[in-house]
Design goal:
- By secondary structure, this protein is of the alpha+beta class.
- Among the domains are: 125 residues, 2-Layer Sandwich (Alpha-Beta Plaits); 95 residues, Chitinase A, domain 3; 62 residues, no CATH class.
- The chain contains 14 helices and 12 strands.
- Strands 7, 8, 9, 10, 11 and 12 form a 6-stranded antiparallel sheet that branches.
- A hairpin with a 5-residue loop joins strand 3 and strand 4.
- The longest helix is centred in the middle third of the chain and has 33 residues.
């Protein structure tokens, strides 16, 4: 009989010899199973192989085991039997450690021959024990938060530019103009497609391209073509261009001047809910203050986790590091694609491949893994609870945040979604508790 718990299957006990060579964060067993103990595993193996067997006169999956045995190669039946028995034994010896396991167990057949004892090796990584009994003594200074008047003016200027109108002009291009360009980049006598474009929108003067590029566009007229060469700085992020000379052939397709609205009470009212410019400025100030306060809270939490993570004993399971590396890679890829750039194109621009970038992510991944261990330890130590209604609300929020909530809901396992929602809530509550304690606020 099999029972499922997490990623481990639990079976009725079998007689077997177990040698334990475990360490603190790694469980390792050598298991020997006598041939006579394999009968139940063989029955399961025969049923599984029968279900996929196709024989004339029988529907697929309906071949009786007795008939199927005669048509299944003995070596195939034994291999399946050994596989099932090995999983059975691994589940049994690892059952006491299931809640601390990181990733699936590793099972290796050491000796497997019909009529002889089956010998297997089972390994599993465990979460390390983290001693944080004195963590509440930690204090992190919270810096005062202020809003510089220049920040308010910069935000106003951004709002002003975002509502600018474009007006076609017949004159030479100058800084501040909105232009659309067609340009080709030649590197070492060949066109470099990553720095070329058929139609590229551009605001002159914003410094968003290779230094000197915009200076060469200024003074050009719509329809005019110009050829010039630039020396790319050595520190330029695109390694294929850094420190090299690139020749550009540029044509202005369209030329517009930007007409900015006047910053006055009418401008403020046009935004929808502000009586005058003074109220708009105050709203911007309050918004910036909230942003700065949240940024400072994140800094305090991050600093606290960094200090506490130093208490996590090494080595930590590599499976944890790889898991966090993969998470970082997915977050990186999502952020690049959110900007409208394919990950492959971005990697070409910086002259790296995925493996190189993932290798660079291992160090921050290790720190994130340690921080996760700290949060888990404090959550358990402080008995952080999550109510069913909180989990339901968080799960609903996660579905609503998806691009296609209805389609996603039909594909997502409800139990997995609730488990993920529960973990998110627990982590947020734990981080808030850490923040309150280390800033000397009264803990909940």
């Amino acid at each position: 009989m099999v029972r499922e718990r997490g990623s481990i299957a639990y079976y009725t006990p079998m007689d077997m010899e177990v040698k334990d060579s475990s360490e603190k964060t790694n469980k390792a067993f050598i298991i020997t199973i006598a041939p006579e103990e394999l009968s139940s595993s063989e029955t399961t193996a025969l049923n599984e192989l029968s279900a996929i067997l196709e024989l004339p006169g029988f529907r697929k999956g309906k071949v009786p085991p007795g008939v199927a045995r005669a048509h299944i190669k003995p070596e195939a039946l034994f291999a399946k039997t050994a596989e099932i028995a090995a999983k059975h034994a691994a589940a049994e010896v690892l059952a006491p450690h299931a809640d601390k396991m990181v990733g699936p167990p590793r099972i290796t057949l050491r000796k497997a021959a019909p009529g002889n004892p089956l010998e297997i090796r089972v390994e599993a990584d465990l979460l390390p024990e983290v001693d944080l009994k004195d963590w509440k003594k930690l204090r992190i200074e919270q810096k005062p938060v202020v809003v510089d008047p220049d920040e308010i003016e910069k935000s106003l200027a951004w709002l002003q530019k975002s509502r600018a109108k474009h007006r076609a002009v017949v004159r030479a291009a100058q800084k501040g103009d909105f232009v659309e360009l067609s340009f080709r980049a030649m590197l070492d006598g060949r066109e470099f497609s990553e720095a070329s474009s058929e139609r590229h929108p551009f605001v002159l003067g914003e410094g968003s391209f290779i230094p000197g590029f915009e200076d060469n566009i200024s003074g050009m007229h719509q329809g005019e073509e110009r050829v010039f060469t630039l020396a790319v700085p050595r520190e330029w992020p695109h390694q294929n261009l850094a420190g090299k000379e690139v020749s550009f052939t540029v044509r202005i397709l369209t030329l517009h001047e930007r007409v900015l609205p006047e910053l006055n009470d009418d401008f403020a009212r046009a935004l929808g809910k502000f009586e005058n410019l003074g109220v708009l400025r105050q709203s911007i100030r309050e918004g910036l203050l909230r942003e700065h306060e949240e940024k400072e809270r994140r800094r305090v939490k991050a600093q606290a986790l960094k200090v506490l993570a130093a208490k996590v004993p090494e080595p930590i399971p590599q499976a944890l590091v790889l898991q966090e590396s993969e998470n970082l890679w997915k977050e990186f890829a999502a952020s690049i694609e959110a900007g409208g750039v394919a990950v492959e194109d971005y990697l070409l621009r910086i002259g790296k491949n995925p493996d190189e970038l993932k290798k660079e992510l291992e160090t921050p991944a290790r720190e994130r893994a340690k921080a996760a261990l700290v949060v888990r330890a404090i959550s358990e130590q402080e008995s952080i609870e999550t109510a069913d209604e909180e989990i339901d609300a968080e799960a609903a929020k996660l579905l609503q945040g998806a691009d296609s909530a209805s389609a996603l809901e039909s594909k997502v396992d409800p139990d997995e979604l609730r488990a993920y929602a529960k973990a998110r809530i627990r982590n947020e509550k734990t981080l808030q508790l850490i923040y309150e304690v280390v800033t000397q606020k009264e803990a909940r």
